[in-house]
Amino acid sequence: MSDPNQDIEPLEPRLPDRVKKRVEAAQRAIDEFESCHVKCGFIGMSGVGKSSLINSLAGERIAKVGIVESTTEPQAFQHGGVTFVDLPGCSTMSWPLETYAKRLDLPSFDFFVLVTAGRFFEDDLRLYDELVHVHKKHVFVVRNKFDQDVRDAKREHAWTPERAADEVRENLAENLEKWGIVPDVELYLVSALRPNWYDFRSLREALLGAVDGVKRMRMRADISAWGKSEMAQKKVLADGRVKRYALASAASALSPIPGTDVLIDLSLLMKMNHEIMHIFGLTEKQAEYLGTFGTNASAMAQRLIRDLGKLASKEAVTAGVKQLSTGRSAAQLAKYAGPIGYAIGASVSGAIGYSMTMRYGQGVTKECYYDALSLIEAVAEDILEEEKELEAYA
Ligand SMILES: Nc1nc2c(ncn2[C@@H]2O[C@H](COP(=O)(O)OP(=O)(O)OP(=O)(O)O)[C@@H](O)[C@H]2O)c(=O)[nH]1
Ligand SMILES: [Mg+2]
């Protein structure tokens, strides 16, 4: 049998310089994005919900959650390019305030999240003071389990959630004054179990604001979205990634798609699909986590895992590209490439690779975007239902 690739001319040497530069830039952008790392430290006493918070920010169960106390040693959890480091609370025997900051490799951290719940500890806030004012680090102070605070405040004082929030903020201000700490703390009232409620989404935005450039892109891709606007930002990011992949595919190893004029880098497309799914929180593990919020989310997550799981297979990518290209001639396919593809079109196969990756990737992005929106809507319904049940019991 003859080798189907034998007639393919090497593409690289034929690319005009101008285009070659763009292709190289695209490949560099892919590499830079992939090798970029963001490191954030989560400091807090045992049981305040650090692991739960890390999971809800990652949109995946990467840290073990439990009612029994876990280790007091720092633990790192990697999610895409983001490393979440679970650090012990400051007011513990083994991690006293005096040596706490010295034991951390401070320059390696992009920012810290100081997690509290129920009450504020003096040493935790003194550590905040030291990290912010002495070491000039970004520290976000979070009061987790605010859902619990709201329920308690309603039951005990018939307060509204707004009143409960005011009381918590006042309590913090009083403590800071009492302990002589500069009152510049920006407090986020959140619930790791209600990531679409309270200050969770503003906290997410603030964390993104703590880094810039590729790091912010990396974080936007790796941390979960719990609302429409965050998901729309993810779509912009995913579309940008598709463009990069399309340019890179114009100069990579090509395999023919049977029955069409398309020569394309299948492994690059599979990688692209996986990345898009990850950005939208739709890999199997991410969808499984979202499915834990309740019955609506669980049913939808299972369906998506079944349907989208295929996107990572060679067969599905081949079929997808084939569907886009069947019945079109090489010249027609190359035309879809637009001006860039035209330039690349010094080699027709390069132009087709570019245009097919682009069209195919845009299709996958759109599908994932709408699926992800439906899934977080299902989560939102589940959260409302659970809250109603809890209220009925109270
Ligand atoms: N109601 C409520 N419960 C929460 C919240 N976050 C965490 N929990 C619960 O609190 C318990 C402890 O949560 P973890 O996330 O394991 O806490 P942690 O800070 O990692 O604890 P250690 O690993 O022991 O240091 C678990 O039962 C969680 O389900 C929250 O926002 N609201
Ligand atoms: Mg934990």
Written description of the protein model:
The chain has helices at 17-35, 50-58, 97-103, 122-134, 146-157, 161-179, 200-209, 213-222, 228-249, 266-279, 284-291, 295-308, 314-325, 330-335, 338-344, 348-393; strands at 38-44, 75-79, 82-88, 111-117, 139-144, 187-189, 255-256, 263-264. The protein has 394 residues and is an alpha/beta fold. The radius of gyration is 25 Å and the shape is elongated. The relative contact order is 0.12. The site of guanosine-5'-triphosphate has 20 residues, from helix 2 and helix 5.
Low-pLDDT parts are 1-13
Domains (count): 2
The radius of gyration over CA amounts to 25 Å
Q: Helix and strand string, N-terminal first? A: HEHEEHEHEHHEHHHEEHHHHHHH
Estimate the helix proportion, in percent: 55-70%
On the 0 to 100 scale, the average pLDDT is 88
Largest sheet: 6 strands, mixed
Strand residues, percent? 5-15%
Ligand species: guanosine-5'-triphosphate, magnesium ion
Strand order, main sheet: write it out: 2-3-1-4-5-6
Q: What class do helices, strands and sheet pairing give?
A: alpha/beta
Separate helix tally: 16
Tally of strands: 8
The separation of the N and C termini measures 74 Å
What coarse outline follows from CA principal-axis ratios?
A: elongated
